[in-house]
Design goal:
single chain, 400 residues, seven-stranded mixed beta sheet, three-stranded antiparallel beta sheet, transaminase activity, PyrdxlP-dep_Trfase_major, PyrdxlP-dep_Trfase, pyridoxal phosphate, NHTrfase_class1_PyrdxlP-BS
Length: 400
């Protein structure tokens, strides 16, 4: 008699679908059907990729060099450009050999956890968190440990909270500044304090810096390895071109870290995916080494939109939206709207509230359950000004 096995592995069956992509797909499906949905769901710039980057890619397409396999860890020129960017923006001098180019930031996140974690190792995850982090940790056999900071703390965890969550199984601290989903940025002093605490306890740090160039009000997102240089030997920096350069579809990210960790990740990637598409790598070289004026124009636009959406949301009674200092998200605390009746419906969770909003005024938001506890919504302001204003106006009318 044949042995009966589950059709799908338990490990893969346990993965939850990306909530942000699910909501975005639903919004796009409704839009395709002719519904006037305003979607704040996707974390994706609404700008085209800058022209000089596209031109570099077009030239790369016809160059036979790019029609063949290249090193799994990335093109040498791109690894050099990433090393230069890391020194410029993160204050860390590294060799190009300490860089591995990945298929977007998500692959860098996955490979970082896969490289460091053994079964049962714990990762401290400041919460609210990007929806992919816990799944990547679990796939690597690790255990995500949520450390929650609410709107009263501007979504920034403290050393005291981290210490309370640390156990003998804690191996890694996840550090994200600016944050997705909240846009929160740790001050230089907070970053240093957390870094010194991690160094004191011999923890590894995985620091996601994908939004480090999208900061406002003169704020600078100080890298944890710049704040605490001694951490460099136990830190992996994750980054990419997607957000800063409006290149989400080009799929170029990277990891920067100690030589042994990068070598191990490179071995993994050699079997997992080999090299990133060469045309995209050539485009990324142009992004990092070319003119940055369009980047500043996009950043300035986000900064202006940020204040507009925060003011509009905070005009709604029961909504509290801290002013974010980075990224392109707002994360309103909507607990004041729960348990009240709106259009005949009484939501008790932010998941129910998000469904109500989509059904009644055709505005797509991502509920807090995707990022941690209920009671919050994530809205991206990386969409056109008219759509941003229209969506806020609909919310104001619904909750008047």
């Amino acid at each position: 008699m044949a042995v009966s096995h589950p059709r799908i592995s338990a490990r893969i069956s346990a993965i939850a679908e990306s909530a942000t992509l699910k909501v975005d797909a639903k919004a796009k499906s409704l839009q395709a059907a002719g519904r006037p949905v305003v979607s704040y769901a996707a974390g994706e710039p609404d700008f085209p990729t800058p022209e000089h980057i596209v031109e570099a890619a077009a030239a790369a397409v016809i160059d036979p060099r790019n029609h063949r396999y290249t090193p799994a860890a990335g093109l040498p020129d791109l690894r050099e450009a990433i090393a230069a960017k890391t020194l410029r923006d993160s204050g860390l001098e590294v060799s190009p050999s300490q860089v591995i180019v990945t298929n977007g930031g998500k692959q860098a996140v996955y490979e970082s956890f896969a490289t460091l974690l053994d079964p049962g190792d714990e990762v401290l995850v400041p919460t609210p968190f990007w929806t992919t982090y816990p799944e990547a940790i679990a796939l690597a056999g690790g255990v995500p440990v949520e450390v929650f900071a609410g709107s009263d703390q501007n979504y920034l965890v403290t050393v005291e909270q981290l210490e309370a969550a640390r156990t003998e199984r804690t191996k890694v601290l996840l550090f994200v500044s600016p944050s997705n989903p909240t846009g929160a940025v740790y001050s230089p002093e907070q970053t240093k304090a957390i870094g010194e605490w991690a160094e004191e306890h011999g923890l590894w740090v995985i620091s996601d810096e994908i939004y480090q160039n999208l900061v406002y009000d003169g704020v600078r997102a100080v890298s944890i390895v710049e704040a605490v240089p001694a951490l460099a030997d136990r830190t992996i920096l994750v980054n990419g071109v997607a957000k800063t350069y409006a290149m989400t579809g080009w799929r170029v990210g990277w990891m920067v870290g100690p030589a042994d960790a990068i070598k191990a990740a490179s071995n993994l990637q050699s079997h997992l995916s080999s090299n990133v598409a060469n045309v995209s790598q050539r485009a990324a070289i142009a992004a990092l080494t070319g003119p940055q004026d369009t980047v500043e124009e996009m950043r300035a636009t986000y900064e202006r939109r940020r204040r507009r959406i925060v003011d509009g949301l905070n005009a709604i009674e029961g909504v509290h939206t801290p002013l974010p200092e980075g990224a392109f998200y707002v994360y309103p605390d909507v607990t004041g709207l729960l348990g009240r009746t709106w259009g005949g419906v009484t939501p008790t969770t932010s998941l129910e509230l998000a469904d109500l909003i989509l059904d009644q005024v055709e505005v797509a938001t991502v509920p807090g359950e995707a990022f941690g506890p209920s009671g919050f919504l994530r809205l991206s302001y990386a969409l056109g000004d008219d759509a941003l204003d229209e969506g806020v106006a609909r919310l104001q009318r619904l909750f008047a």
